[in-house]
Amino acid sequence: MCHSGRRSCGQSRLIDILMKMPFSYVVYKKHGLVISSGSGLLTWEEIKARQDETKTDPSFDPTFNQIVDLRSVTAILMSGDQARMLASRQIFSHESKRAFVATNPSIFGMGRMWEIYTEFSERPSQIRVLADLPSALKWLGLDSLPQ
User: Residue 36's domain spans which residues?
Assistant: First the structure.
């Protein structure tokens, strides 16, 4: 029997699985939003795998906006070429707004590099790297995170 408060047993198990992954995402279809979050040490392979998974998720629509919450990430292991390759992949549409939230200066810098690579790609999307969640929500036109 599942005792998970207001969440269904399936949602509770999914959240438990996602919490064990260094990089995960949740699609809020009703809100047109994808929230990706990372923790600890992230690798190029993990980020690429989540991109691939997101792109093929039946709930995902490339016009959705995104919050990439990197506040709990301690390091990202990827080369500049790997960052350029990931940033140039067409997962989200060019109309989508994508807010990267990072408080660690090196993670913030990696986010800025991603933003710059995206700006110079063939189909740039709207990415902003911000230091706090309230600023990200404001930029996306949201009052709060979906419940």
Answer: 29-139
